[in-house]
Amino acid sequence: MRAMSIAATGMQAQQTNVEVIANNIANASTTAFARRKAEFQDLLYQSASRAGTSTSEQGTVLPVGSQIGLGTRNAAVNRVTLQGTLAETGNKLDVAIEGRGYFGVAMPDGSVAYTRDGSFKLSPQGQIVTSDGYAVEPTVNVPANARDVTINQTGEVIVTDASGRQQTAGRLNLYLFANEAGLEATGGNRFVESPASGDPTRGLPSDPGFGHVRQGYLEQSNVNVVQEITQLIQAQRAYEMNSKVIEAADQMMQTANNVR
After folding, report:
1. In the structure, what pLDDT confidence band is assigned to residue 33 with cuts at 50, 70 and 90?
2. Intra-chain end-to-end CA distance of the chain, in Å
3. pTM for the predicted model, two decimal places
4. Considering Cα of 220, then 226, then 232, then 238, what sign does the dihedral take?
């Protein structure tokens, strides 16, 4: 009874779908979170007869074949990289990216991770760091006597000391990838490059295509909770329908076994 195994693949697919939706809803308030979307493909087909083969009648062919599909499988969990809305925070060290770029983050092992979460802080040494304490790449140091910090749209970090004198403490860089959906998530709002993403291209917020930065703003999650709830209901109904198919197939097997 192939219907049972076919429906089982449908239940597994909807279970994956619900897990992805649950993660989206859980991260609805996560800064710069990009929602995920489960994608599926049909499995192999078993052919009883192929379209176009000759029939018993001379010179005629079958216009339609007979193929039975064997179910579905998860093909990918794609990251939807649409930009979320920008929310004003008023915090001098909150920086949002308007465009495709990513901030670089220096990791303890010497590698560079990438993030769109611009909720930066100052370390005890005056470095601009992420919420986890990792320094922004390249390093930007704010002097201890700085009275004010300004980050303009081109990424320049300008500090003002107690006497009102201004100086440039550094500049934020942005990174682009040919296939940003191919980045590998490592948690903590960070990503690392992968063979699918391609190598990073480094540039400045003022360079074409990199976007620019806005001080005092943070990018919100692009999760639409209403949309996710709608998809959750659809996945639940599909899961129930697949379970009904298994029940029907089981009843049919019982009927066949009871034949005298």
Report:
1. very high
2. 20
3. 0.87
4. negative
Both structure tokens of 96: 């949002």
Among 109, 40, 125, which residue's Cα sits nearest to residue 77? 40
pLDDT value at position 62?
Answer: 76
pLDDT in tens, 180-195: 999 999 999 999 999 9
| DSSP per-residue letters across 157-196 | EEEEETTS-EEEEEE--EEE-TTGGGPEEEETTEEE--TT
- Maximum distance among all alpha carbons in the chain? 101
CA distance 48 to 42: 18
- Across the chain, mean pLDDT equals 92
Alpha carbons 32 and 217: distance in angstroms, whole number: 11
CA–CA separation, 198 and 225 (whole Å):
32
What φ, ψ does residue 84 adopt, rounded to 5°? -80, 170
Q: pLDDT tens, 46-71?
A: 887 777 777 766 678 778 778 888 99
Encoding tokens for residue 13? Answer: 């697919």
The answer to whether residues 117 and 132 touch, using CB atoms and an 8 Å cutoff, is no
Q: How far apart are CA 136 and CA 114, in angstroms?
A: 10
Rounded Cα gap, residues 86 and 93, in angstroms: 15
DSSP states along 97-111 = EESS-BEEEE-TTS-
Cα separation, 32 vs 203, whole angstroms:
20
Contact, 205 vs 194, CB < 8 A?
Answer: no
- Are 215 and 152 a contacting pair, CB within 8 Å? yes
145 is written with which tokens? 């006597």
Pull the structure tokens for residue 210: 């990199």
